[in-house]
Amino acid sequence: MIQPPRVALFSRYPEPGRAKTRLIPALGPEGAANLHRRLTERTLQALCASGLAHELRHTGAPEPAFRAWLGQALPMVEQGEGDLGARMARAAEATPVILLGADLPDLSPRHLQAAAGALRDHAAVIGPAEDGGYYLLGLREPMPFLFEPMEWGTATVFSTTMARFAAHGVTPALLEPLADLDRPEDLARWPGLLA
C-alpha cells in the first residue's frame, strides 16, 4: 500500500516590497503583501480541509515570524538557498510528496485530494496553470531531473516539465488547469480578494 503524500506548501513572508512584487504597480507594496498573506491563509485552509499531512516551506523571514503569523502547530521547513528548482528538489527528496504554491485563489480541498488519489495509480501528477506553468506537482518517487535548470516563472515551464517526464518514460496524471494570481491583469478575476 502506498502511503499518503505530504504536501509541501511554498510561501514567502508577506513583507511589503518583497512579496507579490509583480502586483506592486497595481496594489502598492502593502496591498501586494496583504494579498499574499490572504492567499497563503486560504491555501492553508484548503490543506487543512483536505485531510492531507502538510508542511510550510518558508522563506523571507525567520521561523518565529511565521509562527507568530500562522501558529505553533504547523510543521515548517526553511526553503534554503538556490533557485526555485533547487528549493523544490530539496522538498521532493522524501516522497511521496505534493509541491504546491500559495497563489491559487480557486484551489480547493478536492484538487488536493485528486492529486493524492492520482499518486496511487501514477508515478506523478501535475496541475497545469493557465499561464503555462504548473500550480501543483506530485511525485511518488524522487525525480531530480524535473528540477534541473529552466526558466522558472515563464510560459514554458509546463511544456518543458512534460518533455522531461516523456524523456524518462513517465506519464503523469493531469489535474484540471487553474489560474494563479501573479500579475495586475489577474486581479479582475477575483474582486472579492481585495475587499
UniProtKB/TrEMBL annotation:
Instruction: Give the protein name, as stated in the record.
Output: TIGR04282 family arsenosugar biosynthesis glycosyltransferase
Q: Which superkingdom is the protein from?
A: Bacteria
Q: Which PANTHER family match?
A: GLYCOSYLTRANSFERASE, SLL1095 PROTEIN
The UniProt entry, under InterPro entries, shows:
Nucleotide-diphossugar_trans, Trfase_1_rSAM/seldom-assoc
